[in-house]
Predict the structure.
Amino acid sequence: MQLKGKKWGQATAVGAVFFILILGIVLGYLFYFINQVENLNKVALSTIQERYEKQKEQLDIESVDYLETKLIDYNPESIEVVYGIKISDSPLVIESMITGGGGGGEESIVLVDANSAWDYAYGSYDGFSCPRGRCSFELKLINGYIGAEAYINLRNVFWIWKIGDGYWYAPFNFPKDVDVSSLSLSISYRVESTNFVASSGFVRWKFSVLIVNESNYVIYWHSLNNVTHRDVRDDSFTLTLNDIPAGIFVPGERYYLKVYIYVEIFLFAAAAPPPGFLRIVYDGKVYFDKVRLEAYYRGGFGSGGGIGKAGVIFGFNLNGGTPLSLKAELEVNTTPVELAFYYEYSGGVWRKFESYIIKTTSTVNVDLPIPEEARNNTNYMIIANAGGGFKLTIYGFKLNCSYIADNLNVTLVNERGETAKIVSFWIINASKVWRSDLNVALAPLEKRTIQINYRVERGTRYLIRIVTEKGNVFDYYISIP
Amino acid sequence: MKGMSPIIGALLMVVIVVIAFTGVYIWSLTRFEIYRFHLKSLKSEVQEALQEYGIIEYAWIDKDGTLKMYVRNAGELKLCILDVFINDTLFMHDLDICILPGSGGWINSSHVVGGSYVKVKLVTTRFNFIRGEAYAIKG
């Protein structure tokens, strides 16, 4: 029994050793497994962290500049002298023509001659539209309380043109070389009432004419006839004023002729109206057809009398450009000379867009912005007026035009606190996809302009896509007018 | 006592136990080594799959109806595109187009995609998905 027990004891010992070895393997594997899972978790966590960090990139496009400006010269073949006599071609010298003066009897000088809508370069009012000699109104939901009175006078006055801002005016110089005996102002206009809804009442258009000096001091005022409307209709009027005293003007000084319009609405309720509110709807338009101010004088007094006028038409080959400003280098031999700048609205119809008074006999450079509505025009006209004969020398006309550039200048801003590296630039419209490799690193909060070798097209909307090295995509949209 | 001597008997017992446990030991060691190998490769695959990261920079249906896209590898490992699915339907397969980290590559289909808008899904060799969409460009 003792021997038998010894045998089992040895075997147990050997087994125990092996058991411990196998247990060691199992535990080792278990620890290894745990370690691997832990490593994997670490990798997963760091990947999540990385992805999170990647998402923190933020790039913005501050501006996309696709235009370039160029100065273009006028086309010499387009030069057409409309007033005066051309003396030389290079530089272009024009001797003014003289109107009035020198003869006997009564002569007249036209100080203001706005004979179509194109001369009404000014005129706008908040909420109303007064483009080019035409004003339109739309008065709606004007509620007046009707009380126990038999009649209510609800007066709404709308100033269409107000002093100092958007009113229509025409500047003129009072002639200094002639003795003006009288003045005559005639205004032709048309009032069109297209809609008038009210229980009872009428609409009254009132006109006032002012003449102010350069300090805006009123030297003449006259209210013109009222035009009363009770229904939808269309009327034309011509008003003539012969009571403007010539003695109030200082010869050679500059004045402004202004026209104001009011609209008054009168409502009349029934004898015993129910309390409540009335609603008025009125749509109306005023069209100016002609405004003419003439000064009459006895001819034949003094030498050099009359009004000097020189005018020239010139054109440009835009080649797809958009005019921004007109530059002219001019010289006159007497002062003051008033320059009026026009653009050709349509075949033979000119619209005045700027005035300029030359007060020196040395060379002047004028730089006048071209109005929005004239941005497709190629032909321009300058008309110079003075209180006597003069010589106009034109050294040059240049048009500052904007063109679609061959490159895009894109200004990018890194809005975050980490460096962002841009690796791809896409520009896409409805019909084209274009991509370029980039290698631009933007430090935190850095702003940088990059040049992209791509030419955009007018009238197109583009998607600009920027891709960073970390795989973030930033989209922006631009519209090219 | 006749037969085996106790010493022989004891030795025999020890030999039997040693042989038996040696077998068990070798078997378990082999198994665990296999498990360890699998675990290691699994971990490596998962790790790689996590580190793989690609995006479709832009995809579109061109004027001729074919699908074009530019894929960027924004991860840390080589990215290989295996299949392209359009609206969850296999469109191109076994492409094996590989893009190095930090680079991009074009994938252009040779056959026509129907419709003006499709959802695009790329399958990588690590069985990751890269999703995007494509609009038709008008001529």
Q: What stands out?
A: Helices of chain A lie at 2-55. The two ends of chain A are 111 Å apart (CA to CA). Residues 59-66+404-480 of chain A form a domain with the Immunoglobulin-like fold (CATH 2.60.40.10).
